């Protein structure tokens, strides 16, 4: 459903040009929960932002459901982007807007008819179990509740793809488990394909069906749950593949 082909992105730094994502090709299956894991600075977040063209690639193509996003005029791209939701580590909610208004904003931006908006907001808040918080402000909520609001907001326009940038890195283990359950539920019930950037092995073990490992701007390994499950022995060291699957394996891309 999503294909990146030869995608690259460099940034101009004081010391010169820095290649954050280097000729990455990646296929994400419809219905997958696809993890992108790697050390800090590997290029994971940049890669995620290249998928919805928040960051424009210097080279390469991004195709969503057979439509070439990288070739689309800006107006069409804005419409196509509505099929892609995104959530962030720091939630990125609007602080001076209520929970329901936060969820309503993408509907307003998409030009959804006013009459149906509040019903859709209620549906999305119900889905994440936060209907009772509709009139509160983000500052009155816990981290986990804020991330649920961000998820409800990302679901408002019924996306087919949900991009998650370190969605649990600011949360404690219990809340992390709750948020991963919500993401799993979105994948199961709404058939939304999920791409999740993380540096947490447990996130990958718990919900990902497919994994790409990033290092130095490149994808250096990729594997699937079907290759033998994700049950790593405690304290295991080695490559990401070994630490996630418990098995060594030839890196293959
Ligand atoms: N807008 C930017 N301008 C300059 N350099 C950038 C920009 N965005 C990212 N970089 C650089 O690109 C590299 C990759 O960053 P990125 O955030 O994609 O990595 P990451 O794997 O997500 O790391 P982390 O897990 O720490 O978030 C880093 O060295 C970063 O400093």
TrEMBL record:
Residues 2-241 form the ABC transporter domain. One of its GO terms (biological process) is amino acid transport. Keywords: Amino-acid transport, ATP-binding, Cell membrane, Membrane, Nucleotide-binding, Translocase, Transport. InterPro entries: AAA+_ATPase (IPR003593), ABC_transporter-like_ATP-bd (IPR003439), ABC_transporter-like_CS (IPR017871), MetN_ABC_transporter-like (IPR050086), P-loop_NTPase (IPR027417). The keyword Ligase does not apply. Gene3D superfamilies: P-loop containing nucleotide triphosphate hydrolases. It holds the Pfam family ABC_tran. The keyword Membrane applies. GO terms for molecular function: ATP binding; ATP hydrolysis activity. Signal peptide: none annotated. One of its GO terms (cellular component) is plasma membrane. Belongs to the ABC transporter superfamily. This is ATP-binding cassette domain-containing protein.
């Amino acid at each position: 459903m999503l294909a990146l082909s030869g995608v690259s992105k460099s940034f101009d730094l004081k010391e010169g040009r820095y290649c954050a994502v280097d000729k990455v090709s990646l296929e994400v299956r419809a219905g997958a929960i696809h993890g992108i894991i790697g050390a800090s600075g590997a290029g994971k977040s940049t890669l995620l932002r290249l998928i919805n063209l928040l960051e424009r690639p210097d080279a390469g193509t991004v195709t969503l459901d057979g439509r070439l996003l990288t070739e689309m005029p800006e107006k069409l791209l804005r419409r196509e982007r509505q099929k892609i939701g995104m959530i962030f580590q720091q939630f990125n909610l609007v602080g001076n807007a209520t929970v329901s208004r936060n969820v309503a904003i993408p509907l307003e931006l998409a030009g959804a008819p006013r009459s149906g908006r509040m019903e859709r907001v209620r549906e999305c808040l119900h889905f994440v179990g936060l209907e009772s918080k509709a009139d509160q402000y983000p500052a009155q909520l816990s981290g986990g509740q804020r991330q649920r609001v961000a998820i409800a907001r990302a679901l408002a326009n019924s996306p087919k793809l949900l991009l998650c940038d370190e969605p649990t890195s600011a949360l404690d283990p219990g809340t992390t488990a709750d948020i991963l359950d919500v993401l799993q539920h979105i994948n199961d019930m709404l058939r939304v394909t999920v791409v999740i950037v993380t540096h947490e092995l447990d996130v990958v073990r718990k919900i990902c069906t497919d994994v790409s490992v990033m290092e130095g701007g490149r994808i250096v390994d990729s594997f699937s749950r079907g290759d033998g499950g994700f049950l790593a022995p405690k304290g295991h060291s080695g490559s990401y593949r070994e630490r996630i699957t418990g098995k060594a394996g030839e890196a293959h891309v």
